[in-house]
Design goal:
Layout lengths: L14 H10 L9 E4 L3 E4 L5 E5 L7 E9 L5 E8 L2 H7 L5 E3 L1 H11 L16 E4 L2 E2 L15 H15 L3 E2 L1 E6 L3 H11 L3 E4 L2
Parallel strand pairs: 1-9, 4-10, 6-7
Antiparallel strand pairs: 1-11, 2-3, 3-10, 4-5, 7-8
Length: 201
């Protein structure tokens, strides 16, 4: 998703939030209510971005198929297919927001002169995945796959997409997305909402 509207949180993004929730403890709250679309529905935007939502059931859960193309910078083209699960989300939730272009260059320059962030805010160098035209400047190696590709950016985009879908409630089905910004994700949810129906647990 577009980094311009990402708000950095912590050096491990949502890890501390997830850890806090687990430490507080979870209790049973009855059967969850799930929704899905009543038929396949697609939303296309200018510039080629799109969302394609296919019906599903609670047994299969929510599957996200997301890809982007940044062929003019080191991010390149990536695709990931992910079934949303609590344990794996604890890992994915550590992926930081992206900053690139002039903002990344400015962030890197401040870091090289010893300024790591702005006090009393979350605007710190380690809270971003910083990418310049030279490549990843502060990579986290747990996000590098066996082929040597840094997957942190696309994993954080999955978190953003899940956040937008969460506004619709507990969703099941398969959601295919391409080049989806925060704004477009919300617009897509508004388009999809009238087609949602309850499904049996």
């Amino acid at each position: 998703m577009a980094s311009a509207s990402s708000i950095p949180s912590f050096a491990s993004c949502l890890r501390d939030v997830i850890g806090g929730l687990r430490k507080a403890g979870l209790v049973e709250a009855g059967l969850a209510k799930f929704s899905t679309v009543n038929k396949p529905i697609g939303v296309q935007f200018a510039g080629g971005a799109y969302v394609w939502f296919e019906p599903g059931n609670p047994r299969d859960g929510l599957i996200l198929d997301h890809q982007f193309h940044h062929l003019k910078n080191p991010l390149g083209a990536q695709r990931i297919v992910y079934k949303v699960e609590a344990d794996s989300f604890a890992f994915i939730g550590q992926a930081r927001p992206l900053v690139y272009g002039r903002r990344a260059e400015a962030t890197e320059l401040l870091h090289t002169v010893g300024i790591s962030g702005i006090p009393y805010t979350s605007l710190y160098y380690d809270n971003f995945c910083v990418v310049t035209k030279e490549g990843f400047k502060n990579p986290k190696h747990q996000f590098v796959d066996n082929a040597g590709r840094n997957m942190e950016v696309i994993l954080h985009e999955l978190v953003d997409i899940m956040g937008a879908l969460a506004l619709l409630g507990r969703i099941c089905g398969r959601v295919t997305t391409y080049r989806l910004s925060h704004k477009l994700a919300l617009e897509a949810c508004r388009c999809i909402e009238p087609s949602l129906v309850d499904c049996k647990t």
